[in-house]
Design goal:
Radius of gyration: 20 Å
Order of helices and strands: EEEEEE
Number of strands: 6
Strand order of the largest sheet: 1-2-3-4-5-6
């Protein structure tokens, strides 16, 4: 559904450090805060107002952290985590049950993966992702 006008105000911090503590350890992290509001929306309906509601698919807080260890020329191992705060998939923010189809749950996603380089042109990526 189209929305007349949305205002997103926020701040994001991103940082990365190569060769942290050891010559083969890289760290990348980010933190994002967004205050989102629907300012105009004339086409939604006469009984439900969307003015002042949060914009769909925009969480207020999102954070991520990934550590990668380069074990050699052909192997890299990574561990990561990503947090996403409450978000809505409807413009009137009525989807309050996150455990249903189309609903979003506040949560932490954890990942572990490896990248194996095979020669100059190929690589193999294997990963496991877990969401709470």
């Amino acid at each position: 559904m189209n929305v007349g006008r949305i205002q997103n105000r926020g701040i994001e911090f991103v940082s990365s450090k190569d060769n942290l503590f050891a010559s083969n350890l890289d760290l990348v992290g980010s933190l994002t805060y967004v205050d989102s509001a629907i300012l105009e929306n004339t086409g939604f309906g006469q009984f439900t107002s969307t003015i002042g509601k949060k914009a769909p698919y925009v969480p207020r807080l999102r954070a991520s952290l990934v550590a990668t260890y380069r074990a050699g020329k052909f192997l890299a191992l990574s561990l990561g985590g990503r947090f996403s705060g409450k978000q809505y998939s409807t413009v009137d923010n009525t989807d309050t049950n996150p455990n249903t189809y189309g609903g979003f749950d506040t949560g932490l996603t954890k990942s572990a993966f490896q990248i194996i380089k095979i020669g100059r042109r190929f690589r193999s990526d294997i990963g496991i992702h877990s969401t709470r």
